[in-house]
Automatic annotation (TrEMBL):
SUPFAM superfamilies: Multidrug resistance efflux transporter EmrE (SSF103481). InterPro entries: AA-Vitamin_Transporters, EamA_dom, EmrE-like. It comes from the Bacteria. This is Drug/metabolite transporter (DMT)-like permease. One of its GO terms (cellular component) is membrane. It is a multi-pass membrane protein. The chain crosses the membrane at residues 20-39, 51-69, 81-102, 108-130, 137-160, 166-185, 197-222, 228-249, 261-280, 286-302. Keywords: Membrane, Transmembrane, Transmembrane helix. Belongs to the EamA transporter family.
Length: 314
């Protein structure tokens, strides 16, 4: 998951130092890139729904402890909590379930590469759905280039069949579309809640935890097989990947702005692919990194970053 949205207004507390922000940026990229490995390992002993349920509940507990320890302010506005419920569904519950299910059928490296489409999905949602951005012609071209990169990753010239891997790839794109919806929704409805990055992050993840708690009888009451690697993967996935890394990302967005912070997208696929190859013995086809590079080019164009760089150099 990557953040490309306008986040709630900064709280009265001072932002971390620039150096610590840079460290948080890199750490978030590494943790999120590793999350695909953690999910793959966890799926060897528990169901996809149990993976999503566990990571959300552990993330809620981790952030809840931090909120209590730091005595963070939480909003009393029912309207804001309703928006946080929507974000809990679209930012956590839906994409986590889709990613967990999909990784039964695709490698962790491929899942991490597809995750890089999140900024493209965000641009589409912000432009077409919520109308919070007006894109230039070159940015629309960037969206098209990003879609072309997805096609290269899927490699339809190898033959297209509705097998598990293709449906899983579509499911992952559904997950990144859900992330994109969430970022645009934040920008449209909760750009200023008065809460800190930690409190705001806890708010929507806690709402996701509430939803998963209600769904417990329907999703997770199935047999499990736990061992040390599975338990460690779940703890890291929940406490770090669904907890602390989200706060790191919110701090980065507030300090750097959404466009610069979204370059974390370039870290996560590299980490995901390398860990998949080194630890899980996964193989990488030539079209997957090539498609990822095309997606990255699409992101640069969609965010109008290339033009800004040319202007800055003149």
């Amino acid at each position: 998951m990557t953040s490309t949205s306008t986040t709630p207004a900064a709280s009265a507390t001072r932002l971390p130092s620039p150096r610590w922000i840079a460290v948080q940026f890199v750490l978030a990229g590494i943790v999120w890139g590793s999350s695909f490995l953690f999910m793959k390992v966890a799926l060897t002993g528990i169901s996809p729904a149990q993976v999503a349920w566990t990571r959300i509940l552990l993330g809620t507990l981790t952030l809840g402890i931090l909120v209590l320890a730091r005595r963070e302010h939480l909003t009393r506005s029912l309207r804001v909590w309703a928006h946080l419920l929507v974000l809990g569904l679209t930012f956590c519950v839906i994409p986590f379930l889709l990613f967990s299910w999909a990784q039964q059928h695709v490698s962790s490296g491929v899942a991490s590469i597809f995750n890089a489409t999140t900024p493209i999905m965000t641009a589409i949602m912000a432009w077409l759905v919520f109308r919070v951005e007006r894109l230039k012609a070159l940015q629309v071209v960037g969206i098209g280039v990003g879609i072309l990169g997805v096609v290269v990753i899927i490699a339809p010239w190898q033959g297209v069949s509705l097998d598990g891997s293709l449906i899983a790839e579509i499911a992952i794109l559904g997950a990144t579309a859900s992330y994109g919806f969430s970022f645009a929704y934040m920008r449209r409805f909760v750009s200023n809640t008065g809460m800190s990055a930690l409190a705001f992050t806890f708010g929507y993840i806690a709402m996701a935890g509430l939803v998963m708690a209600v769904l417990t009888p329907f999703l997770v009451l199935t047999p499990v097989r736990l061992d040390v690697p599975i338990i460690v993967s779940l703890v890291l996935l929940g406490c770090l990947g669904t907890g602390i890394a989200y706060v790191w990302n919110q701090n980065t967005v507030r300090a750097w702005g959404p466009t610069r912070a979204s370059t974390v997208t370039y870290i996560t696929p590299v980490v995901g692919v390398v860990l998949g190859v080194l630890i899980l013995g996964e193989t990488v086809s030539w079209n997957e990194p090539v498609g990822a590079l095309v997606v990255f080019l699409g992101i640069l164009l969609a965010q109008d970053r290339l033009r800004r760089r040319r202007v800055a150099q003149t």
